[in-house]
Amino acid sequence: MLWIWIGFISFVLVLLALDLGVFHRKAHVVTVREALGWSAVWISLGLAFSLFVYHGYENHWMGLGLGPDAVDRSPEFPEGRSNDGKSAVVKYLTGYVVEKSLSVDNVFVIAMIFGFLAVPALYQHRVLFWGILGALVMRGVMIGVGARLIAEFSWILYVFGAFLVLTAVKMLLIKEANDPGDTWVVKLTRRFLPVTDRFHGEHFVVHAGADDSHEAETPGAPVVDDPAVERAAAGTRMITPLALALIMVETTDVLFAVDSIPAIFAITADPFLVFTSNVFAILGLRSLYFALAGAIETFRYLKVSLALVLAIVGVKMLAHTWLKSLFGANFNLYLLGVVLAVLALGVVASLLRPKATARS
């Protein structure tokens, strides 16, 4: 089982290396057309991986599918039922769709962060790349802890379910987002770390007094003087607004993971399915951001759809045994269909009644 984890993580690292080191080696403004193309690539990879999931669990490659899935506990299977190829694919795809949909709300917050800090479009891809790399590590840790808790304490599933329902209610009631400048992350960072007034190319950290401290690293980027650097003592390390944006993006992902990780555990407690569905959903977050950031306000009912998705998976976690007996063996397939239908209704409703029309 260890080797399949090593192989998957190595595969992801190769994808990230190709992304930053080959396809996006030079900083540039990502166009909507390019973002849509890369979104199609990442989504295709995520869907194609379901073929590996099917054959891996059907044939028990390197131990896949041999252990019980705690989410499927029942009187007949008190420890949970093992996943075969079909059930594993349905759970993987459901988890992928849920995580992908929840990342849309993350896109909106990231857009607010970039707008608040006035991050040039030229450098946004770099922030998102390192932000997502950190998110993969943090989510891996959170998934490991969550899987351990579920294995040791089965009642934690009901806690997760109640939390998801409460989060859904909170999403429906909160209308306005907070100002990113008022968050504790910004205040704490500015209090303990010196922050420059200006961007310094793609640098996250600069040294006061260095000859190139205020020079642009990227060709075509403006070269500007920085009063904050000039006031600092020579040799002082200072973080740039680009680093502040990265810190805020990482913190935001942790907060969103608190919602999304319990959501995926409502579908499956198999660590490999949870992790892989999360990874493929996160890998496409950068291209999703550049594709949707400019049009996020258009989808005014999408937040309602996301809240309903959280509520649905929360109720599923709370009443899994009863729902499974009611809908039978294809219950997880029905769940996938309901999630897709709710998201589609949110998009269609937004397009039929856009925000500008609603104000008139």
Amount of helix: 55-70%
In total, how many beta strands?
4
Biggest sheet strand order reads: 1-2
- Rg, nearest Å: 22 Å
Order of helices and strands: HHEEHHHHEHEHHHHHHH
Low-confidence stretches: 212-223
Q: Into which percentage range does the β-strand content fall?
A: under 5%
What would you call the shape? globular
Secondary structure tally, helices: 14
**Overall pLDDT, averaged?**
83
Backbone structural class: mainly alpha
N-to-C span: 59 Å
Biggest sheet record? 2 strands, antiparallel
Keywords:
two-stranded antiparallel ribbon, globular, 360 residues, single chain, mainly alpha, 3% strand, 14 helices
Account of the protein in words:
The structure is a single chain. With 360 residues, the protein is an all-alpha fold. The protein has a domain at 30-118 and 128-176 and 259-359. Helices cover 68% and strands 3% of the residues. The protein contains 14 helices and 4 strands. It has helices spanning 2-23, 32-58, 85-117, 121-152, 156-173, 184-192, 227-231, 241-265, 271-283, 285-292, 302-318, 320-327, 331-352, 355-359, and strands at 68-69, 81-82, 205-207, 237-239. Mean pLDDT is 83; it is low at 212-223.
Write a brief structural summary.
The protein contains 14 helices and four strands. By secondary structure, it is mainly alpha-helical. 38% of the residues are buried.
